[in-house]
Amino acid sequence: MIHNIITSIAAKANQYIKNKLSIDEDIVIVRSLVDIKGNLNQGIENKITVFLLSIEEEKLAKNNSTFKGITNPSINVNINIMFASYFTDVNYVESLRHVSLIIDFFQRNPIFNHSNTPGLPISVPRLHVEIYNLNMPDTMRLWGAIGTKYVPSCAYRIKQIIFDSDTVIEDIPAVMGNNT
Length: 180
What we know:
This protein is an alpha+beta fold. The chain has one domain: STM4215-like (2-Layer Sandwich), CATH 3.30.2000. It contains 4 helices and 6 strands, in the order αββαβαββαβ. It has a 6-stranded mixed β-sheet with strand order 1-2-3-6-5-4. It is globular, with a radius of gyration of 17 Å.
């Protein structure tokens, strides 16, 4: 389910930027910045890379639910994702421009549902996305953990994804673009 959510939102952000810049090339890709050995992944230069930062349980939703007679209650999670704009040093200003386009995209599109975002899982009727603020020390620790130097980026929280054992989750392939 998480993979479909991230790829669907990334595809929509990609289309938004392609339209804004009047280009055909994909700019937003779902991929880690570095491989397991800490080397930069191929194919990320001059792109915005989207990757999962963390998954956290939504405690507020858990505290508000009643568990009377339920042996396996649903779990509400938030996922935090990063949009990292990796352009070479000579194109640093382009990195900033592309991060600005991502912020603009989410400012205009804070809610995602089946009618505006193809590829979302059927079990996810609606998602709310908000900026995920990191203070400077947390940002530096995060980039150290990622294994690379800081690049212009912004993080977003996708709120209250429900995992429920009583719901059949159909795995719908993500919409990856035109194959024509």
